[in-house]
Each structure stands twice: as C-alpha cells, then as structure tokens.
C-alpha cells in the first residue's frame, strides 16, 4: 500500500514526487543484460577515443590551431552527452537501479536537449571553417583565429543553453498525478511530461519549435556552406587540388550526415510511434547519445593526417616511458 501511495495520488491533489522510476524496454526486459555488453563496449570506445583526441590536441603544438580547437569542443560535448546518459542506463541493466531523483531527471533532460543542439551548432561552425578555408584561403588566417573560436564557443554554449532551459523548467512545473514510472531509459521531455495531469500542449510545442529552429537553422547553414564548397572545388583546375579539398571536408561531411540521419530516424519513429514497437525509439534514443560520440574522433583520426601523426607520436611517448 505504501508503494502504491508513492506511485499514484488522487486526481484532485498534485503529487509531490521525490523520484521517478525508469523502465527500460518494457516488453523486453529479459534481454537487457545482453544489450548492456555492446553498449558498454561502445561507451568505453567513445570515452577512450575522445579522451585520446583531446590529449593529443593538448600535447601536440602542431595541432594548436582553430580547426582542432573546434574538434576539441566537439569531443568535450560528446563526453558530457555520454556521461549524462549511458552510466545510468548501464546501472539499470546491471543492478536494476531504476530510481532517479526529481532534480536529477530534469538536469539530465536539460543536458541532453542543450548539448545535442550544441553539437549541431559546432558542426555548423566547423562547416563555416571549411568554407573559409576552401573558398577564401588567403583570408583564412585573418578570419578563423583563436579569438574567433573563443567567440564561437561562447555563442554555441549560450544560444543552445538559453533556448533549451525552458524545456526542463516547463516539465518541472507540471503536476504529476499519473504515477512516476517512465517508460524509457532516460528522462526525455515527452516520456516525463506524459505522466502529468496538466495540459502539456505548450510544453510539447515549445520543444518542437525550439528544436526545429536550432537544428533546422544549423542544417540549412551547413548545406549552404557545402554547396559553396562544392562549387568552389569544381572550379579548381590544378591537378589533385579538388580531390585534396574534398578529402579535407570528407570526414566532416560524413559525421554531419551520420548525425542528421540518426536524428531524422529518431524523429520519424517518435511521430509514427503507434505503428512502431515502443522499444524502437527508446533504443534509437540511447544509440543517438552513444554512436556519434564513438564515431566522431575515430573518423577524424583516420581521415586527418595531422591527427593520426599526433596520436602516433603520443603512443610512442607512452611506450618509451
């Protein structure tokens, strides 16, 4: 009886919750332990790859350039996103620790919303960096400076944090009278707000408008940047110059395409959730916070000669110690 009073409350009085319960994959809880193995490996890969990239850029003087500082910002965002989501998911799978405090849930919601859009905005700044490097190479050193990177980082953090902050605030102000069981592995706005007995139309509308405004504007600017880049590359007549320019942007474009594709699939599955098993969007949501962080440093490390050489020198130093 005491547990039922904790989960449900009379409809004529608001609930005062101290925690939520995260129920991952409601229909397939028997194979959660098996799923934890690939998730753990991907998590370790993401953390190790991003940490290696950050250390390499920090220690290699030849990598102290604006382009690599932007890549460091991307790695920091990836690390925070991974640490915000995956450890909690793994503790649910391994130890059945499903409880998450009221404040921790909304903090997770804020970090996920803000850092996801920060990553998109960082891709946009990196696309502008490549645009200037290829379309205006002589002006590149005077435009893309350390001061520019500092201002870009402040813009990335401030814009997306301010626009994302109302999402958890609006959710936290709702009255939760439909229990505290979240049918998800993480505290997404939709999963949490549906537990409320209040009207959540404005809550959903704000997240929809803010999300599409931030992510949509970034994607449009990225497309414009690469359109100008492609047009400039096709005009290059020096032998091998076009291939080199495309190779320089290739890794960046692959990651943006991968990031956008996963996000698009996630949106489609949420829109069509009545025709798709509920576990599918839950799994995609987890993977979206895990696969891009694991892929970003690997793709850059493999396709960028300077980073690859820096990592090799770093490994030689460690082996010589």
From TrEMBL:
Instruction: Report the residue ranges that make up the G-protein coupled receptors family 1 profile domain in this protein.
Output: 49-300
Q: Which GO terms describe its cellular component?
A: plasma membrane
Entry's Gene Ontology molecular function annotations: G protein-coupled receptor activity; olfactory receptor activity
Q: Which UniProt keywords apply?
A: G-protein coupled receptor, Membrane, Olfaction, Receptor, Sensory transduction, Transducer, Transmembrane, Transmembrane helix
Q: Which domain of life is it from?
A: Eukaryota
Q: What is its main location?
A: membrane
Report the locations given in the UniProt record.
Membrane
Q: Where are the transmembrane segments?
A: 7-28, 34-55, 67-86, 209-233, 253-272
Q: What would be one Pfam family of this protein?
A: 7tm_4
Name of the protein in question: G-protein coupled receptors family 1 profile domain-containing protein
User: What processes in GO biological process is this protein linked to?
Assistant: cellular response to lipid
Q: Which SMART domains match?
A: 7TM_GPCR_Srsx
UniProt cross-references to InterPro entries, sorted A to Z? GPCR_Rhodpsn, GPCR_Rhodpsn_7TM, Olfact_rcpt, OR51/52/56-like
Its topology with respect to the membrane? Answer: Multi-pass membrane protein
SUPFAM superfamilies recorded: Family A G protein-coupled receptor-like (SSF81321)
Q: Which organism is it from?
A: Vombatus ursinus
